[in-house]
């Protein structure tokens, strides 16, 4: 798989974090392959998790048949991307609130616009890349947090697959905060190597939901 345009949706407040290093490694590796990479740094953008009237500029275009998705342009970056990578630290078995807000607002618009044949992501791919604050054993069948695949089901299937993305298997950085500098370097090197060797076989075998979409 070779993506020409990549959007990285990045959520971490510190440029000195491992997540920042993972984001930078992805930018460098993908750019080296000739990809155009755009980063939406949600904290730097002061992205608001909740939808507000401030999102609408230039006045409401169609007040009688109001559609938030049609009135804003948050989805413009997504339209151009072949691959979307979500880079974040796992909080409470999910994404940070600021990234959940991005999913609510931007991907919510995708569903609304698809219903009106204005936007589809069915040819686009997406993946989660994230850090945990505990070792892999904690996210196992016998670990206190249970199987990581169960944890990720609402994100990967309930959001990404439901929107129509083809979903790559996640990139998981297990507890980098307590690892040695050598182990963190090894994690980043493994990430760079994977980005140079994306395969269709890396896609998760979700049931495609496009033929079963419904809208309230």
From TrEMBL:
The gene is NQO2. Pfam families: Flavodoxin_2 (PF02525). This is Flavodoxin-like fold domain-containing protein. GO terms for cellular component: cytosol. InterPro entries: Flavodoxin_fold, Flavoprotein-like_sf, NAD(P)H_dehydrogenase_qn. Belongs to the NAD(P)H dehydrogenase (quinone) family. Keywords: Oxidoreductase. GO terms for molecular function: NAD(P)H dehydrogenase (quinone) activity. Residues 4-194 form the Flavodoxin-like fold domain.
């Amino acid at each position: 798989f070779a993506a020409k345009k990549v959007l990285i949706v990045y959520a971490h407040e510190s440029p000195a974090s491992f997540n920042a290093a993972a984001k930078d490694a992805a930018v460098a590796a993908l750019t080296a392959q000739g990809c155009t990479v755009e980063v939406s740094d949600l904290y730097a953008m002061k992205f608001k998790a909740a939808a507000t009237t401030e999102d609408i500029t230039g006045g409401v275009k169609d007040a009688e048949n109001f559609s938030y998705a049609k009135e804003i342009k948050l989805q413009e970056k997504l339209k151009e991307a072949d691959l979307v990578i979500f880079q974040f630290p796992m909080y409470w078995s999910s994404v940070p609130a600021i990234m959940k807000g991005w999913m609510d607002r931007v991907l919510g618009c995708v569903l609304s616009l698809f219903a009106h044949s204005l936007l589809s992501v069915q040819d686009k791919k997406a993946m989660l890349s994230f850090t945990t604050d505990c070792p892999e054993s904690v996210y196992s069948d016998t670990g206190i947090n249970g199987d990581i695949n169960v944890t990720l089901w609402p994100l990967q299937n309930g959001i990404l697959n439901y929107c129509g993305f083809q979903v790559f298997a996640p990139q998981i950085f297990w507890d980098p905060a307590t690892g040695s500098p050598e182990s963190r370097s090894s994690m980043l090197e493994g990430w760079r190597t994977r980005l140079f060797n994306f395969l269709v076989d890396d896609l998760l075998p979700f049931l495609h939901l496009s033929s079963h979409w419904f809208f309230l």
